[in-house]
Design a protein that fits this description.
heterodimer; A: mainly beta; 0% helix; B: 109 residues; mainly beta; 6-stranded mixed β-sheet; 5-stranded antiparallel β-sheet; globular
Chain lengths: 114, 109
Amino acid sequence: EPEVTQTPSHQVTQMGQEVILRCVPISNHLYFYWYRQILGQKVEFLVSFYNNEISEKSEIFDDQFSVERPDGSNFTLKIRSTKLEDSAMYFCASSGDWSYNEQFFGPGTRLTVL
Amino acid sequence: KNEVEQSPQNLTAQEGEFITINCSYSVGISALHWLQQHPGGGIVSLFMLSSGKKKHGRLIATINIQEKHSSLHITASHPRDSAVYICAVSLDTGNQFYFGTGTSLTVIP
């Protein structure tokens, strides 16, 4: 069964460093999403991406964040200069259609900023 | 702003018990989703509902659009059902999910 994959599973970085989180969505899906979950809190939407551009983003998704689909398979989230409060689990998701919007989630990347 | 409220926050049940988790939301939605998050963190989609009722194995999800309320039921609960169950909604105006805080379920053998 097709699934969303994410790498790495755990990333540890120093404050101020850039990190890139990688996702491979399900191959025939068209909509891609990043969410984050700070430990003990609810999952929060960051950004959605369609047709090679951002379609929606939340207040959390400021200038420190960017997303890219550099080739036909990967979908990346870059954090330019990490802060302690960026420590969270980051989930990628994909869906096949706007109207049928069941989203399939990846296993997550746990980001720890020291 | 859409608020998604879940109750209870925590639930402990004996194996075999019938379990109900509730979700209410405040604005019009295109669909409501029930998700399961395992202790390792992974999220699995259980149901997507826009009306009525769906059943999958021992899981049943219902939604009342007029009352802006949904319930997730687990029949004959089992310790492997222990997880966090999350309600999320997607709006007519966009495709992002708004998440509830989750219900942490522990089923004791």
